Amino acid sequence: MPNLPQRKQRPWLTGSGFDKGRRNANSTFYQSSPWRKLRAMFIRENPTCVLCGRVGAVVDHIVRVNDDPTKALEWANLQTMCHPCHNAKSGREAHNKPTDK
Fold first, then answer.
1. β-strands 78-81, 58-61: how paired?
2. Could you tell me if residue 26 is inside a domain?
3. 70: containing domain
4. Any bridge partners for residue 61, and if so which?
5. Beta-carbon count within 10 A of 51 CB
6. What span, in angstroms and rounded, lies between the C-alpha atoms of 46 and 40?
7. Which residues are within 8 A (CB) of 92 and not within 5 positions of it... i.e. 6 or more apart?
8. Per-residue pLDDT averaged across 33-43, rounded?
9. Which of 7, 18, 50, 71 is the S-S candidate for 77 at Cβ 3.0 to 4.6 Å?
């Protein structure tokens, strides 16, 4: 009998169901109607990445939602980014995060 490849580990899915066990504690915010409407309007008016100029698909918070929740729905706190630029920014933020918690 042939050996089947092992399944990839997905640590962000620790339980059953889509949302259970996700690392992103802000998933309720990102699924909310106010955020979805604001995101759609923002991307319509700002379709390109602020860093490289490619067509962007991610609306990024300049000041993270966890750092200041009061700025989560502020237009001035948003920027459009393409996926590669957003992933690089998020990675830098994750590695510069304080470890005192």
1. antiparallel
2. no
3. 35-95
4. 78
5. 17
6. 10
7. none
8. 96
9. 71
